[in-house]
Amino acid sequence: MMNTVFQKCLGGIFFTISVTVWSQFRNDRIQPPQSYVQQDHQQVAALPSISSSNHSWPIPQQTNHHDHPSDSMLLHELPINENSTIASDIDKIWHDQQAICVRLKENARCKHPALLGRLSGPALAILEWSERPSDDDTTGTTTVLCGDYSNQWLDAGYYFVEIIVLYCEDFGVTSLLNHHDRGVQDQNAWLEADHTSKCVEDARYNRITSKEGRTIISIPSSIEGKGSYRRGRWVRKPHLPLRALFTRYQPIKCAMDKDFVGNSHIQKGTPMHKYCKSIVARDKKPQKGKRLKKGENDKLAGLHEYDFQWNMPLLSEKQLVQKLRQRQRDANDDKATIPKICAIGDSHSRTMVERSLPALNLTGLFEFVQSNWIRPDAIVERIRRSNNTNCDHFFVQVGQWPASFRTGGHPFSFGTYYTRLKAQVENILAYNPNAKVYLPTIDQNPLMAKINNCSDWRTPTMLDGYSHMNKMIANELGSRVEYLDTNFIIYTHWDGHPDWQHLLEEVRYRKTLYMAAIMLGETEWWSQ
C-alpha cells in the first residue's frame, strides 16, 4: 500500500498525517457476504459497516476534545463520497462560517434535494438547511444548500461532518421556507401535495460526504446556542477518543431477523449476521446494572458515547426531578395542587407514561388517553371513556400513524394533518374551557426497512413537516395551545431507536422530564 504523507503547517510547526491511518479506518469495517450481494444487489450492497470504529480520528491529538483548535486547521473544502446517489450532482462541499454548504451543478438530477446533516465531536448537532444564492452564478440556476449550526450550543473543537440525502426533491419545511415569497395558491399546493409516490434515496448510498474519517471541521470558538437549543445538549463523555458517528439504517434483508427487530432468524456467526450487526447495532453500552471499569471505554459506542447536559445554572437534573416528586407528593397529601396532565396518542405517549415516568419515580403524573388516529369526532368520547374528564393539561402526539404504512399507502398531506389536528384540538378546548393543550415536536424516525422499501413515510422530512403544522396550529389558536420544541433533546438521536420506532429510553427520559417541568410551570430554571 502506498504510504503517501501529507504535510500541513500548524503555527509554524509541521506535522504529518499518513494515508495508512485513513486506510485502516476504512478497512476495519465488515463487508456483506459476496454471494448475498450477487443474489440481491438491490437490497444490500457491499458497503462498509457504519458501526463506530475503535480507531480515533486521524487528526492532531489534543489534550482533550474541548481544547480550542487552531484557526489554521479549519478545513474549508470537504471530500465528496463518490458512491453517493447524487455524487454526480455535487460540485463542491465546504465549511463556510458556521455552516456546511453544498453547491449543486447546473444540470443536477436532484436540483433541490432533502439533506440531513449531523456534527459529532465534543457535542452533537443537527444542521438547519436553507438555500442561498451562489456568488458565481449569473443565471440563477445553480442551487446552494447550507446547513447552519449557529443556533446550536457547541464547544470549540474538532467535529466530524456527515450529510445524507433523504429525497431527490425536498418536499418538506425547508422547501416551503426556501420559497417564502410564494403566493397563497402555491402555499396551498404545498399543503395539499400527495407524497404517496415519494421514496427515499437508497440508504446504502445516501451519504454525500466522505465515508472515511476525513470529513472534519474545526470550530475555533464556542457557540452559546439560541432558543430552545440553549436549554440542553448531548456532550461526549469525558476521556473518550473522538470517533465519527455514522447514520444507522435498517437494511431490508436484516429486518427479517429477530435479532434486528424482525420475525425470522439468520444464523449467528454467519457473514450475513455479522454484516447486519455491523449496520444495525451501532450503539452499544454495558448491560443494565454493570458499570464501566477504567479502560473499558471500548464497551461504549455510537450514541451511548454521549451524555445529556442541561443548561440550568441553579439546578441539576437530579434536583429538578426531586422538585417534581415533592410537588407530586404534596398534591397526593392534599398539601398543594398540581395540574392534572393527560397524554393523548398511542405508543409514543404510552411509553412516556408506562416507562419514563416510573424511571423518574413520577408514576401517575400523566394519565394516558389512547388515540391512534387524529379523530376530531371521537376524541371527547375517548377522554370520557378513560375517566380523565378533569384534566387541566393535555399533550397530543398523533403524528406517527398518519405518515405510516397503516394509511394503506396514502400518507396524510401536511394540509390533511393540519386540518384534522386543529379540529381535534378545538374540540378538546370546547370540551374543557379551562384546559391547555400542548403540541410537542414529533419524534423523528430512523430509516427502517419499511421506509427503505417505500412503504412507509415516517422520515424526518415528513415528520418535521407535521411538527411545522403543530407550530401553525399553536400560533393560530392563541395562549391555550402551546408548541413544545423538544428538538434539542431528540433530533441528534433520530436514528437511534432500538426498535426503529421509539426513542432510546435515555432520550425519552429527558423529553418526559422536560415536558413535565414545562407543563407544571417549572420554567425558570433554564438559561434564557
What does this structure look like?
Helix content is 25%, strand content 18%. With 528 residues, it is an alpha/beta fold. The strands form five sheets. It has a five-stranded parallel sheet, sandwiched between helices. Strands 3-4-8-7 form a four-stranded antiparallel sheet. A four-stranded antiparallel sheet has the order 6-5-9-10, with no helix packed on it. A hairpin with a 3-residue loop joins strand 3 (90-95) and strand 4. 41% of the residues are buried.
Could you spell the SSE succession in H and E letters?
A: EEHHEEEEEEEHHEEHEHEHEHEHEHHEHH
What is the total tally of β strands? 17
Shape: globular
Percentage of β-strand residues: 15-25%
Sheet of most strands: 5 strands, parallel
**Helix proportion of residues, in percent?**
25-40%
Please, what is the average pLDDT? 83
Whole-Å distance between the termini?
A: 54 Å
Poorly predicted runs: 1-55, 68-73
- Total of helices: 13
Structural class computed from helices and strand pairing: alpha/beta
Gyration radius (Cα, Å) is 24 Å
How are strands sequenced across the largest beta sheet? Answer: 14-13-15-16-17
